């Protein structure tokens, strides 16, 4: 290992020492507008497939301090359509 690794190595956590690390989640939540009218206390997010209901609840409660009443998830499939599709003719000689 290089000399810089040992020079700038992060100190080990010991009981009583201040916590210097900040643990951030690797997931991203995207707040989206719902397609239909929703009650004012309901929000809709676009989340990764790896996130569970428990992960969503913890994410909102621990990071944003938002009380969560219920979490409902669904998988929405999209049609595989090419946008701006231009048909072409393939000729064989």
UniProtKB/TrEMBL annotation:
Pfam families per record: Ribosomal_L23
GO biological process entries: mitochondrial translation
Entry keyword set: Mitochondrion, Ribonucleoprotein, Ribosomal protein
Record localization: Mitochondrion
UniProt GO MF annotations: structural constituent of ribosome
Keyword Chloroplast in annotation: no
Protein name: Large ribosomal subunit protein uL23m
Taxon lineage: Eukaryota, Metazoa, Chordata, Craniata, Vertebrata
């Amino acid at each position: 290992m290089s000399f810089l690794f040992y020079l700038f190595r992060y100190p080990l956590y010991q009981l009583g020492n201040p916590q210097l690390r900040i643990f951030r989640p690797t997931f991203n939540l995207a707040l989206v507008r719902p397609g239909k009218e929703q009650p004012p206390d309901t929000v809709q997010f676009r989340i990764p497939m790896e996130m569970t209901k428990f992960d969503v609840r913890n994410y909102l409660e621990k990071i944003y301090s938002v009380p969560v009443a219920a979490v409902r998830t669904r998988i929405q499939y999209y049609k595989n359509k090419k946008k701006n599709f231009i048909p072409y003719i393939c000729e064989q000689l």
